[in-house]
């Protein structure tokens, strides 16, 4: 068994004047989840399409489970599953028909294709809608069907291109659960996302793309440590006591919180700061209306990474 | 091979689930037939009965022209909606989606031909040849449609969306069908138009179909039509396949 499920060296892809990928290296260990994080246009989709044999790179090489994606595309396609940014199911067909079609295209017998479709529909909670045309499905159902369609062949490597973009939190949570189940079975997953939160929740390692290049490659924890902080936001029920609260927070955290209207916002390095702040305010009898610990946003990630680069230069 | 059949099956299931598109194929020609026969028939041919005899083979030809457009729009939609990518990310033959689209279209055409002939017979159309020539006429129409479908495959792969395919399709089909002998004999047309009709491949298809269904000279128009069919395939199949390869690897 290969140690690396996905490896890529110096991938370059140009569309006319635009350079979508500018020398990307990737290495993903078998059985792990890698999160490719980046804003729109960073080259995430292009990279996925190359690795999934849907696109040829202009330069560089890539292999999935040891098979070259340009010269052994057929072998690669037997081992992978792909769920694109845009759901690629046939809207006019029912969910069941879609999955049966994929099964038949994979060379399953009629019976096996039907059985696999039924199993996947149940697994993805789509049995109730199985015989309705896909165009009547909600966004979350479509994504789940699309993911199911990419798993018909029990792939060993799965590419998910922004699997939860545009989904509501409930649908997103449901999809995360499916992805975790996949990983538990030993599948290697590469997923792209615009949300640090998602990469943090699912990935063993995070690769940050910026303008077609890899800006960082690290574990979520290390990446967050590099970014330094999380932010604690809070608001009191009684706005008149905001000064008093600011003083209390300063005493606990050691940093003077920024004040935005009635809201206090302070960077913290330790998650345990939050209960400490809550206790302190509670002791003082200041009722908290709202409190939250935020991960740095993708903006923060990029600001931090680019500042680091500037500092290093 | 079985992959192509699966994709053809998909086309048929879609057709069944999507009654509107089937209605298009079945009722479209029927409505055209009724309109032409009862609105223009008397004025053109003196009686609706006589015009029905004239125009039914024409409708068969027109339908093959119109229906082939479906291949182009279907392919285009598959690409736009990502179904194309889904199929391509599976270990399938690269050519399977294309063959599937054409296969589904053949099924559609056969349904359309049966519907049109059935409807024509119900209105009082009578063949004056035997069953074999009539079958040959249907086969010729189908063959012509298949040859022409390469043009649509090329357009479907080259144009940005299905609307564009349909738009450009109408621009191509209307002159080809109206400036021909589909609806009327061509003797009253002015010289320049008659000249166009002379070179219009649809005219030869028409002559062949009328010959096969109503009697008359058959050999020459059939040969000319076959020559056109070979021409279409020879020119457009390589272009379409090149476009297909391009679209498969770069977009």
Summarize the structure.
The complex is a heterodimer of chains A (313) and B (251). Chain A is an alpha/beta fold and 313 residues long.
Q: Can you describe what's shown?
A:
With 313 residues, chain A is an alpha/beta fold. Chain A contains eleven helices and 14 strands. In chain A, the strands form three sheets. In chain A, strands 6-7-8-3-9-10 form a six-stranded mixed beta sheet, sandwiched between helices. A four-stranded antiparallel beta sheet of chain A has the order 2-1-4-5, with helices on one face. In chain A, strands 12-13-11-14 form a four-stranded antiparallel beta sheet, covered by helices on one side. In chain A, strand 4 and strand 5 (67-68) form a beta hairpin. Chain B contains ten helices and no strands. The interface between A and B is medium-sized, with 32 and 26 residues.
């Amino acid at each position: 068994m290969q140690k690396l499920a996905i490896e890529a060296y110096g991938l370059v892809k140009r569309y006319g004047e635009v350079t979508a990928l500018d020398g990307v290296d990737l290495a993903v260990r078998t059985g792990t989840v890698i999160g490719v994080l980046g804003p729109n246009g960073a080259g995430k989709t292009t990279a996925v399409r190359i690795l999934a044999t849907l696109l040829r790179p202009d330069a560089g090489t890539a292999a999935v489970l040891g098979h070259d994606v340009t010269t052994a595309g057929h072998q690669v396609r037997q081992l992978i599953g792909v769920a694109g940014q845009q759901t690629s199911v046939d809207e006019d067909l029912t969910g069941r028909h879609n999955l049966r079609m994929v099964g038949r295209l994979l060379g399953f017998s009629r019976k096996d294709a039907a059985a696999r479709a039924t199993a996947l529909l149940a697994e993805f909670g789509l049995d109730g809608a199985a015989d309705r045309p896909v165009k009547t499905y909600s966004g979350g159902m479509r994504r789940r069907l699309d993911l199911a369609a990419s798993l018909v062949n029990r792939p060993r490597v799965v590419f998910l291109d922004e699997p939860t973009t545009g989904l509501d939190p409930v649908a997103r949570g449901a999809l995360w659960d499916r992805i975790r189940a996949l990983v538990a079975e030993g599948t290697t997953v590469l997923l792209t996302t615009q949300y640090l939160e998602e990469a943090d929740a699912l990935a063993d390692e995070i690769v940050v793309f910026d303008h077609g290049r890899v800006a960082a490659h690290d574990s979520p924890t290390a990446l967050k440590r590099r970014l330094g902080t999380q932010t604690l936001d809070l608001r009191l029920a009684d706005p008149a006591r905001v000064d008093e609260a600011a003083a209390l927070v300063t005493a606990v955290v050691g940093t003077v919180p920024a004040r935005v209207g009635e809201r206090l916002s302070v960077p913290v390095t330790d998650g345990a700061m939050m209960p400490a702040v809550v206790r302190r305010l509670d002791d003082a009898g200041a009722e908290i209306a709202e409190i939250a610990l935020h991960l740095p946003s993708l903006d923060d990630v990029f600001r931090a990474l680019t500042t680091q680069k500037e500092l290093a230069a | 091979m079985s992959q192509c059949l699966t994709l053809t099956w998909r086309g048929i299931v879609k057709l069944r689930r999507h009654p509107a598109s089937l209605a298009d194929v079945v009722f479209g020609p029927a409505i055209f037939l009724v309109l032409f026969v009862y609105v223009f028939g008397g004025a053109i041919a003196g009686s609706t009965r006589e015009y029905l005899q004239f125009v039914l083979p024409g409708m068969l030809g027109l339908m093959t022209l119109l229906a082939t457009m479906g291949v182009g729009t279907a392919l285009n939609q598959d690409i736009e909606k990502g179904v194309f990518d889904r199929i391509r990310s599976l270990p399938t033959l690269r050519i399977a989606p294309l063959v599937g689209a054409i296969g589904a279209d053949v099924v559609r055409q056969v349904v359309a031909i049966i519907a049109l002939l059935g409807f024509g017979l119900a209105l009082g159309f009578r063949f004056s040849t035997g069953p074999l020539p009539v079958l040959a006429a249907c086969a010729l129409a189908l063959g012509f449609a298949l040859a022409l479908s390469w043009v649509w495959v090329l357009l479907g792969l080259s144009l940005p969306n299905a609307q564009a395919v349909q738009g450009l399709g109408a621009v191509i089909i209307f002159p080809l069908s109206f400036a021909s002998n589909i609806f009327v004999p061509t003797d009253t047309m002015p010289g320049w138009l008659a000249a166009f009709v002379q070179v219009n491949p649809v005219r030869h298809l028409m002559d062949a179909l009328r010959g096969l269904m109503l009697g008359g000279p058959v050999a020459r128009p059939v040969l000319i039509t076959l020559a056109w069919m070979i021409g279409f395939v020879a020119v457009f199949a390589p272009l379409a396949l090149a476009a297909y390869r391009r679209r498969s690897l770069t977009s």
